[in-house]
Amino acid sequence: MGSKVSKTTLGKYIQENSTVSRVFIIVIVPIFWALIPNHMEAHFPIIAGDKHHNQTKALAIENIHISKVMYQTLSKSKPESWITFEGALGNKLDIEIGLPKLDKLKKFRPTIEIITPKNESILIHTSDINNPEFFHEPYTDTESWILIRQSIKLKSNGIYFIKSFSTTKDSGKLWIAVGKEESFGVGELTKLVSIRGSVREFHELDVSNNGYSTLYTIGFALFIGFILFFIFKIIRQQIKKD
Q: Which end of the chain has fewer CB atoms < 10 Å from its terminal CB, N or C?
């Protein structure tokens, strides 16, 4: 007794339901994969804004080897932005610092301080960067300047902090990207739909054009719907056989 599904059941079901399976394979799957934002330079976006303006409110991130980008805002009232993570001896912190491509930020040059578990300080200055690298991100259709890329080998175990600030006390926006390994799960892909508008807003661009997000949502819903449909049918057939 029971309803254990054999490994060959899915294949048999697809063969027996050729019309449905053809629609799924020929239409739904290509649409979904075409809509997946696979040109995001592997960085999953996190909107930090000015919410993490001191050490006690630091934005906690995990798995620094997995790529992610934090969008931060500095102001006169909140001149710092903090990130924290747990590191281990020998781990590598790959970090990029960039700015939204806005005229008002042409001369904005933030400083990044990495504070180790031993309370040692590693400073990354960008004040001497005169010709930053231009970068266009296709999925959000945003433009940035990359100020610096750096790789830092961690020398101790424990809690690290990354503090962003301006030595000249200027207000401005920046983003900090860490990690190089691409790892987008289903959960992250669904979040990208809503985050896209927030990223464009951070870059001070129009957020009313949500055509891509709508298409992606429809494609994703159809994809998941067909998967659930197949699973339901398979389980139902197996229960009947039992």
A: N
Check which CATH number belongs to the domain holding 91 and give it. 2.60.120.380
Contacts of 199 (CB under 8 A, 6+ apart): 45, 47, 71, 140, 142
The one-letter amino acid code at 136 reads H
Fill in the amino acid letter for 96. Answer: E
Domain count, the chain: 2
pLDDT at site 182 = 77
Q: What is the mean pLDDT of the chain?
A: 81
Indicate whether this model's pTM tops 0.85: no
Give yes or no: residues 27 and 111 share one domain. Answer: no
Q: Give the list of residues 6+ apart from residue 219 with CB closer than 8 angstroms, or none.
A: 28, 31, 32, 34, 35
127/116 same-domain check: yes
Burial class (CB in 10 A: 0-12, 13-18, 19+), 34: exposed
Q: How far is CA 217 from CA 11, 76, 140, 145, in A?
A: 28, 39, 15, 30
